[in-house]
Specification:
Strand content: 15-25%
Number of domains: 1
Radius of gyration: 15 Å
CATH topology: Rossmann fold
Order of helices and strands: EHEHEHEHEHEE
Structural class: alpha/beta
Distance between the termini: 33 Å
Number of helices: 5
Strand order of the largest sheet: 3-2-4-1-6-7-5
Largest sheet: 7 strands, mixed
Shape: globular
Length: 175
Amino acid sequence: MNAESKRRLLLLRHAKSAWPAGIADHERPLAERGEKAAPLMGGYLAREGLVPDLVLVSSARRTQETWMLAAGALPSSIEKRDVERLYEASAADISAILQTIEPSVRTLMLIGHNPGFQEFANDLVGAGDAESCMRLRRKFPTAGLAVITVDADRWGDLNPRSGFLERFVAPRSLT
């Protein structure tokens, strides 16, 4: 990989959400388990030096709360953009969103939902630790984090199977 074209994509699925009666899906809050997992994942990101230049967050309440709780462990200078289109985004929608990201962003984090995240990650990843790749194919759990390295001059240049899965981490593996 050319160091100048290397980019890192962090896909963080929202933490575990609650299902309160009478609340629309978009407005569902985090469950107690999610309120514990989100800061745990934020701490992991900080410890591992996985600090994004830009974070795109779905407009759903549970993704916003996930970022708010994870961000506490990260530098306050990280730019955050709310992206309505990430809510219920398909793999194709995620690809289209990436087309809009400026080339100056080297490390990009998306906070969103399944099944789109899992489909997108599985389409993008072509290599990586075999065990991590297998777990990603099986399930992308709540508050799960996929760290994918790509060799591309622009975010819009990503091709299927061009990504390398550096790691795939879930809160359960950190406790």
